[in-house]
Amino acid sequence: MDNKLMLMIPGPTPVPESVLLALAKHPIGHRSGEFGTIMAEVTAGLKWLHQTENDVLILTASGTGAMEAGIINFLSPGDRVLVGTNGKFGDRWAQLAEGFGLNVERVTAEWGKALDPEDFRTRLEADTAKDIKAVIVTHSETSTGVLNDLETINRHVKAHGALIIVDAVTSLGATNVPIDEWGLDVVASGSQKGFMLPPGLGFVAVGPKAWEAYATAKIPRFYLDLGKYRKDAAKNTTPFTPPVNMFFALQVALKMMQAEGLENIFARHHRQMNATRAAMKALGLPLFAADGTSSPAITAVAPVGVESEKIRSVMKKKFDIALAGGQDDLKGKIFRVGHLGFVCDRDILTAVGALEATLIELGYDGVTPGAGVAAAAKILNETA
């Protein structure tokens, strides 16, 4: 019998049945009044989710496309920018910025460690000429399972006066990102993460200070020109043909999220993160990110005495549970357990139980049968 595929990766994430059914509806014209009504509703829902009264623009793109738009619309070739790099995606934004002719300075930390806000403060305070135009930060570094201290870094950026451009691809909808309260200028995310949708939509929240920079930014842009999206969003339409059925799905997903409530969404993700981490410790599996810096979207594990790729292979072949592997230099060294989006407590217990069985099959000496499930269940029962 074919088993039900269980996605325990940081994206794409599981999609609720009601959202999938919305995708199956017959398309409507994207210049119709019906679409305009949906556009107005989802825009209001996105502002709620982003905790902002300012623009949240919808692109037909992945999270990388949203980040590219978030960089090229507000900067000019030669601008000096700081980019936090402590994983694959921080590195990607540095490479992207360099590709558009920006003067990039990396603020680095070892993969698996959080960025040090003091490194940003030191560089920003030394810039008395105010040459630094923007700071680009990955909030949840998916490749390592680390959550960077965005709030503190942002305070230093605000004291300097530069723009802050945030990759919130796996943090938005999983942990608190109060855009207006913190005064974040540009925040990018993607549909296949905490939004509980398939891949296909990118989102960019833009504040007033960023729009001021837009007026003088000189990097060429056309399809990703956010000014066009802003102008058309004010009329509940889009500048180019959107994936109409994804808007149907977004409408349903946002209603689900609003019914659960922001605080409950954040609490669920943190509860499942803590349960997963407790299970890994109980099974004798070393965690890659330290307590206090771990992402509520994904847990990275660096096993010793058993190969991570063998764990992933058995989990997939025997239980049809997909875990993520390591990327770049971490390939073959870690595996990653996603708990992002449409994931329930039962999914955590199922994945941990299957992992226990996998470790036993692979002859891992550190496993005590039932220890992982018991540790996860204790956390889930205490905080549910």
Automatic annotation (TrEMBL):
<dbReference type="GO" id="GO:0008453">
    <property type="term" value="F:alanine-glyoxylate transaminase activity"/>
</dbReference>
<feature type="modified residue" description="N6-(pyridoxal phosphate)lysine">
    <location>
        <position position="193"/>
    </location>
</feature>
<protein>
    <submittedName>
        <fullName>Alanine--glyoxylate aminotransferase family protein</fullName>
    </submittedName>
</protein>
<keyword id="KW-0808">Transferase</keyword>
<keyword id="KW-0032">Aminotransferase</keyword>
<dbReference type="GO" id="GO:0019265">
    <property type="term" value="P:glycine biosynthetic process, by transamination of glyoxylate"/>
</dbReference>
<feature type="domain" description="Aminotransferase class V">
    <location>
        <begin position="27"/>
        <end position="327"/>
    </location>
</feature>
<dbReference type="InterPro" id="IPR024169">
    <property type="entry name" value="SP_NH2Trfase/AEP_transaminase"/>
</dbReference>
<keyword id="KW-0663">Pyridoxal phosphate</keyword>
<dbReference type="InterPro" id="IPR020578">
    <property type="entry name" value="Aminotrans_V_PyrdxlP_BS"/>
</dbReference>
<dbReference type="GO" id="GO:0004760">
    <property type="term" value="F:L-serine-pyruvate transaminase activity"/>
</dbReference>
<comment type="similarity">
    <text>Belongs to the class-V pyridoxal-phosphate-dependent aminotransferase family.</text>
</comment>
<dbReference type="InterPro" id="IPR000192">
    <property type="entry name" value="Aminotrans_V_dom"/>
</dbReference>
<feature type="binding site">
    <location>
        <position position="336"/>
    </location>
    <ligand>
        <name>substrate</name>
    </ligand>
</feature>
<dbReference type="InterPro" id="IPR015424">
    <property type="entry name" value="PyrdxlP-dep_Trfase"/>
</dbReference>
<dbReference type="Pfam" id="PF00266">
    <property type="entry name" value="Aminotran_5"/>
</dbReference>
<dbReference type="InterPro" id="IPR015421">
    <property type="entry name" value="PyrdxlP-dep_Trfase_major"/>
</dbReference>
<dbReference type="InterPro" id="IPR015422">
    <property type="entry name" value="PyrdxlP-dep_Trfase_small"/>
</dbReference>
